[in-house]
Specification:
By secondary structure, this protein is mainly α. It contains eight helices and two strands. Helix 1 runs parallel beside helix 4, helix 3 crosses helix 6 and helix 5 packs parallel to helix 8. The radius of gyration is 17 Å and the shape is globular. It starts with 17 loop residues before the first helix and ends with a helix. The N terminus is likely disordered.
C-alpha cells in the first residue's frame, strides 16, 4: 500500500479524522470536474469539434457531483470498513500526482484518471485480508452500477432528468470499478490478483462488460 509522506494522522476506528475528510472532499471536487468535462463533451478535444456548451456543463456538473459522491465515497468507505473489520488502522489519503493527472486528462480529453488516492491501512495484514480489502471498493461500485443500470434502462426511461441522473451514476461507478481493477501495482486490481487470480479475472471481465454495455446505451 502506498503511503504519501507527511499525511499519516492516527484516527479512531470507525471515525473519520479531519485530514481524511479534507482529502475526501478535495478528491471528490477534482473528480467531479474531471467527469463533468469528459461526460458533457466540454473537454478541449471534444469542445474543438462540438463547441463549449456552458449550460450542458453546469447541468452535467450537478449530475457528475452526485455520481462521484456516491461512487467515490462508497468505494473508499468499503475499503475502510473491511480493513477495520480486520482490526487494521485505515484512512483515506489523496495522491497529489493522481489528482493533477485526473484534472489535466479530464480538462483536455474524454478520459478520466479515476485513482486520486487510496485507503491506507496499517497493522499485520494477511494476504486474504489484503485481497478482500482491495476487492471491497470495486465490488461496491459494481453493485451500485448494476442497480442504477436497471433503473436507467427499465424504470426511468420515460423521465429525461432521472434517466440522465441514473445514467451518470451508473457510468461513473462502472468507470471507477474498471479503472481500479487494472492490475497496476498500486491499484486494487494488483492486490486482488496476487491474492486470488480467478476472482480478479471474474471481477475485471465483469466490470469491463458492464462498462461497455453502459457506454453503448449512454
Amino acid at each position: 500500500m502506498y503511503f504519501p509522506k507527511g499525511t499519516i494522522e492516527l484516527g479512531k476506528t470507525g471515525q473519520f479524522s479531519r485530514l481524511e475528510i479534507k482529502h475526501l472532499l478535495i478528491s471528490i471536487i477534482v473528480l467531479t470536474f474531471a467527469f463533468s468535462f469528459a461526460l458533457t463533451k466540454n473537454n478541449i478535444i471534444q469542445a474543438y469539434s462540438y463547441g463549449f456548451n456552458l449550460y450542458n456543463f453546469i447541468l452535467g456538473f450537478e449530475k457528475a457531483f452526485l455520481g462521484v459522491v456516491i461512487a467515490f465515497f462508497c468505494h473508499e468507505i468499503s475499503h475502510k470498513f473491511v480493513a477495520q473489520k480486520y482490526h487494521l488502522w485505515s484512512e483515506y489519503r489523496m495522491y497529489s500526482k493522481g489528482l493533477i493527472l485526473a484534472a489535466i486528462l479530464g480538462f483536455f480529453t474524454p478520459i478520466v484518471f479515476a485513482a486520486p488516492g487510496a485507503v491506507m491501512f496499517r497493522g499485520k495484514v494477511r494476504l486474504f485480508e489484503m485481497g478482500r480489502i482491495a476487492l471491497a471498493g470495486p465490488l461496491a461500485n459494481i453493485i451500485i452500477s448494476i442497480i442504477t443500470f436497471y433503473l436507467y434502462i427499465f424504470v426511468f426511461f420515460e423521465s429525461a432528468t432521472l434517466n440522465i441522473i441514473f445514467g451518470f451514476i451508473c457510468l461513473i461507478n462502472a468507470v471507477l470499478a474498471t479503472f481500479n481493477l487494472i492490475p497496476f501495482r498500486s491499484f486494487d486490481g494488483y492486490k486482488i490478483y496476487i491474492w486470488n487470480a480467478n476472482i480478479w479475472i471474474i471481477s475485471f471481465l465483469f466490470s469491463i462488460i458492464l462498462l461497455i454495455n453502459i457506454i453503448i446505451r449512454f
